[in-house]
Amino acid sequence: MAPANANSSLVRARLAIHHPPSGASRTMGGRIGEVEFQFNPGQLELSRSASWYAQRAVGFDRGAQQEFSGADPASLSVEVFLDASATPTSPQVRKKVEQLLSCCEVDPQSLPTNRPSPPWVRFSWGGFSTVQFIAYVESVSAAYSLFSPTGEPLRATCRLSLKEIPTPVRGQNPTSGALSARRVHQVVVGDTLPALAWREYGNATRWRVIAEANDIDDPMRLRPGSELLLPSADDVRRGPGAGPGPGPEPRGTP
User: Fold this and answer.
1) Selecting from 3.40.50.720, 2.60.40.10, 3.40.50.150, 3.10.350.10, what CATH number does the domain 168-254 have?
2) CA 121, CA 79: separation in Å to the nearest integer?
């Protein structure tokens, strides 16, 4: 028999469900709830595509010259397996499925606004940052496979399809007017600012840039599940404006 604490370090995948933003804001509202996966996914399907526009021209003998017109939102498909067969009287499977289905319904809190919307969600799984983006639930399907004598569902497999919600990039390049590339990182257990700075910029001493961008007073206290804005490498290289202290040091400088 496996030790009781064999899975104590297992990081569960989860889907955080939030109220949609109010008005023209693109920031998620407060958290409605969360679905923690009983069993981590065996497979994730992530897709992203780019759009190109073809302008016909007689000067090209093999088709037309194409111009990039933008990146399309990412799509993520994931399967959620729910099982309450060990507690036949528990309604947890039914309630979790209903919670997932509600992600395709209008959030009552958004009705008074001029932009009614279903909840916004964010899927996360430890440090797997590639799949951590703000999204809406495009579709949910649930297949029930086990029931109690009273008809209570005890086992279900749900298939979710998430579609990324494009959000404006924060910050602006003061010299060119172009938006600087930044991304959001969700804090997991064990994260530190120096470690994030090393991973993002190749220089652990750049942790102050992240601290300043997120108004962090105590760099030793990062709350798991919170989100950090990571400034672009270009912002860091620009020097003093990117954070306190002297300008950037050579990569790898202790």
Assistant:
1) 3.10.350.10
2) 15
Give the tokens for residue 14.
Answer: 């989860």
> CA-to-CA distance for 20 and 183, rounded, in angstroms?
20
Greater pLDDT, 223 or 246: 223
89 Rama sector, left if φ>0, alpha if ψ -120 to 50, beta otherwise: alpha
Total residues belonging to the chain? 254
Rounded to whole angstroms, the Cα distance separating 96 from 189 reads 25
Judged by DSSP in three states, 211 sits in helix
d(CA 125, CA 131): 8
Report the SS3 class of residue 109.
helix
Instruction: Report the alpha-carbon distance of residue 45 to residue 16 in Å, rounded.
Output: 19
> Residue 140 is encoded by which pair of tokens?
């949910």
d(CA 148, CA 89): 7
Mean pLDDT taken over the chain: 80
- One-letter amino acid at 98 equals E
φ, ψ at 119 (rounded to 5°): -60, 155
pLDDT at 203 (0 to 100):
82
* Phi then psi dihedrals of residue 208, to 5 deg: -65, -30
What digits encode the pLDDT tens for the residues 105-136? 999 988 887 789 999 999 999 888 889 889 99
pTM comes to: 0.62
